[in-house]
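In the laboratory, one determines a bound structure by crystallizing the protein with its ligand and collecting diffraction data. In a computational setting the workflow is compressed into a single prediction: the sequence and the ligand go in, and a structural description comes out. We illustrate the idea with 2-phosphoglycolic acid.
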Amino acid sequence: MLIVLNHKSNLEKQEIEKYIAEYKSLKTNDHQMIICPSSCYLPLFEQLELGSQDISRYQAGSYTGEISGYALKSLNVSYVLINHSERAKCLNEGLEIARKKIERAVESNLIPIICVGDTKEEHEQRNHLRKIKEILSQLITKELKEYIIAYEPLYAIGTGIVPSNDDIKEMISMIKETYHTKVLYGGSVDEKNVEILKEVDQIDGFLLGGISLKLSNLQTLLQKLDK
Ligand code: PGA
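The predicted complex, in structure-token form:
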């Protein structure tokens, strides 16, 4: 499976050094692991497959504080998270910005991991499938050749709430009818619920937030995936 570790803006330098040392003994078996640490730590992870949590919507140039796709590529980054709901919630980023980021990712040869999610209300009112379809149709153009989709219900991220397998199956099946690519599930995945989640055949991997920081729990999760 494809396992993406999203550290968000956690960890200080000493902690990340300890993390890298401990990560070396993690048994990942045949899983493809992609680590998305805080950008400032990307060069410390040179031997591992890397993702960035963000990319500038602009090309390189006079954009103080931004990190261009080309800079990320030069740090051996291969993937980039785009449209994560925390960018919308905390930084007011909308689909137009996400679209520009996808363009910048493609220009600099990075594979976008496009995140989409529905709210509890949309789910309860059965508007959720339509909403996700609409977002994806705005973000994914015919020209986009290589990308991954991460389905992350907004009510599941960091809350401990996980939708039922039937709900996840319904959503990912709908996505896969149109987009023939890998689809990850993300939102409160941990070493306790992964055994249930892995029964959804449509899931190609997981986008992990909280648990990505706890390597012993992550090890348990990986073991349970292999059982
Ligand atoms: P979580 O985060 O696993 O802590 O819910 C997932 C994410 O935001 O990508």
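The longest strand covers residues 77-82. Keep in mind that any predicted model is a hypothesis to be tested, not a measurement.
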